[in-house]
Write a structure and sequence with these properties.
There is one protein chain. The chain is α+β, with helices and mostly antiparallel strands. 12% of the residues lie in helices and 28% in strands. It is built from three helices and eleven strands. A hairpin with a 5-residue loop joins strand 8 and strand 9. Helix 1 packs antiparallel against helix 2. One of its GO terms (cellular component) is cytoplasm. Its main location: cytoplasm.
Length: 207
C-alpha cells in the first residue's frame, strides 16, 4: 500500500504460427463492440485476418487487474464470443481455426471440453491465464482464430498498413511489372477490395 506498482513485461500469446516467413503485420483499429484484430502477410499470395479469441480477452483482463480498473472496464466491454474460445491449427496446415466451448465446458475455459475439426491438433486447450504462461502453453494454447483470407495479389505479399480509424487496409506484393505492383485497398467492414492504385512498376516496400 502506498508504493508504486512494479511494471512487468511478459509474453501472453503467440497468436499465429506459420510455415512461411512473415513479411508484414498490420494492426487494425477495431470498430466499437469488436475484439482486437490484425492482418498478416507472409511469403504467399494471401493476407490473413486474425481476431482475438475469448481466452485472450479474458486473460488480458485478468492480468490487468480485473474489471474494477478503468483499463479492465474497457476490456470487459469488448467481450464477445463470436470468434471462438480459442484456436487450433492442422498438423500440416497454415490456417488457424476457431474452437468453441462444449456444453460441459467450465466457465472461463479452465479445462473445459471444446469442439474442433477432425484434422486439428488435439493437444490445443485454450484457457484463461492469470500469471505469466510457460513456453509449452504459449506454443500450443494461445493461437487466434483466422476469420478471413484476402485474395487478389498475384505474388507474395510484401507490405500492409491500416488507416488510423481501422476502416481501410492497404497491401502490396512483390512485383516486376506495373500490373502486379498495384496497391490494393480493402474495406475492413466486408474485407472486400475497394480499389487498386496503379503507379509503381516495381515492388512497393512500405506503406
Amino acid at each position: 500500500a502506498g508504493q508504486e506498482e512494479e511494471e512487468h513485461w511478459c509474453e501472453i500469446a503467440r497468436s499465429q504460427v506459420h510455415g512461411h516467413d512473415f513479411r508484414c503485420v498490420a494492426p487494425v483499429a477495431s470498430p466499437p463492440g469488436s475484439d482486437f484484430l490484425y492482418v498478416a502477410g507472409s511469403e504467399e499470395k494471401v493476407l490473413r485476418v486474425l481476431e482475438a479469441p475469448q481466452t485472450f480477452i479474458d486473460s488480458l483482463l485478468a492480468l490487468r487487474g480485473g474489471e474494477e480498473r478503468p483499463a479492465g472496464r474497457a476490456l470487459a466491454a469488448q467481450r464477445r464470443r463470436g470468434h471462438g474460445f480459442g484456436a487450433a491449427v492442422a498438423a500440416l496446415g497454415l490456417s488457424n481455426k476457431a474452437v468453441y466451448e462444449g456444453e460441459g465446458a467450465a466457465g472461463g475455459g479452465a479445462g473445459g471440453e471444446y469442439s474442433e475439426g477432425p484434422d486439428f491438433v488435439p493437444c490445443a486447450a485454450p484457457q484463461v491465464i492469470r500469471e505469466p504462461p510457460l513456453e509449452e502453453h504459449l506454443a500450443q494454447n494461445t493461437l487466434w482464430p483466422e476469420t478471413h483470407k484476402l485474395y487478389g495479389h498475384g505474388n507474395d505479399v510484401f507490405c500492409a498498413a491500416a488507416s488510423p480509424d481501422g476502416r481501410l487496409l492497404a497491401s502490396a506484393c512483390k512485383a516486376q511489372t506495373a500490373s502486379t505492383a498495384s496497391i490494393w485497398v480493402w474495406c475492413t467492414a466486408s474485407w472486400r477490395p475497394l480499389a487498386q492504385l496503379r503507379a509503381h512498376t516495381l515492388t512497393v516496400t512500405q506503406l
